[in-house]
Amino acid sequence: MSDKIRAVRFHEHGGPEVFRVEEIPRPEPGEGEVRVGVRFAGVNYIDVYRRTGFYPVPGGLPAIPGAEASGVVEAVGPGVTEVAAGDRVAFWDAAGAYAGAVVHRSERLLLLPDDVDFEAGATLPLQGMTAHYLTHTIRPLGPGDTVLIHAAAGGVGLLAVQMAKLAGARVIGTCSTEEKAERVRAAGADHVIRYTEQDFVEETKRLTDGEGVDLAIDGVGRATFEGSVAATRIRGHVILFGQASGPPDPIDVRKVLGSRTLTAASLYAYSSDRNEMLDRARQVFGMYADGKLQVHVDRVLPLAEAAEAHRLLEGRKTSGKLLLRP
């Protein structure tokens, strides 16, 4: 095994052009740590936020982006009991996954079941567990509920549509193009609103006989937030979990929300405890292994095309998951 690996690094904040592919020493695990040889790395908005400086970069610059990946344990440090060399694993809260290998804390690793392949293993941890807490934990969905899911053709969106349907809810999804709308329908959505051609608030109200949805799931942010509230019924619930269009503008809480509940959420708050994380992963992997949950990988790009992956993600030119292969 070579003592060098290839990694994507950025030495300053900025656009995708700040990425460089460099050769660095293969990292060594310390106490309670594991080195994982990366098979696939997931591309997510948290990587964009860290690249641009919107989120802090763990350890400072220069930095390797990437929080999510699947792979095989290459080496374990002292005190590790959760995994062993050769185990198939995945993770979603690391730093430095856009590389041939990454070191992460052993207690944050997820063992991959035999019937979950490496592509799914790099797709389901962050986006799958996010979709799970959005549909099952904050305001659990069930028969008789109606949910509005923005960016329904995205990685989280397609999974959330499927999970909401499995829970028995009626699903309204939004997306931009007919090609994306077809994928959202295939995922099980009852209605799809193309926000480029229709006012999603008016159409949601029409589909719900003027009442609004029980739950709105919004990962877009500024462009959709106040509309999401308006499309939600009185005493309904709005979850803001992302800001692909930027953070929402400040609001007059009483005037905008009325008698509605708003939760600003992140996966970290719903999987920071190891037991909760393992239970959530078990449920998500189980849905996939049982054939109840389909994973859509938009494309797999080589590590050297990480900048292009970010351009595609930020330009909303993907549907489903983007993966990098070291």
From N to C, what is the helix and strand string? EEEHEEEEHHEHEHEHEHEHEHHEHE
CATH superfamily of the largest domain: Medium-chain alcohol dehydrogenases, catalytic domain
Content of β-strand: 25-35%
Q: What is the general shape?
A: globular
User: What number is the mean pLDDT?
Assistant: 95
Structural class: alpha/beta
Give the low-pLDDT segments: none
| Strand count | 15
What's the structural domain tally? 2
State the CATH architecture of the largest domain. Alpha-Beta Complex
Briefly note the CATH topology name of the largest domain.
Answer: Quinone Oxidoreductase, Chain A, domain 1
Q: What fraction, in percent, of the residue positions are helical?
A: 25-40%
N-C termini distance: 15 Å
Largest sheet: 7 strands, mixed
Counting H and I runs of at least 4 residues, what is the number of helices? 11
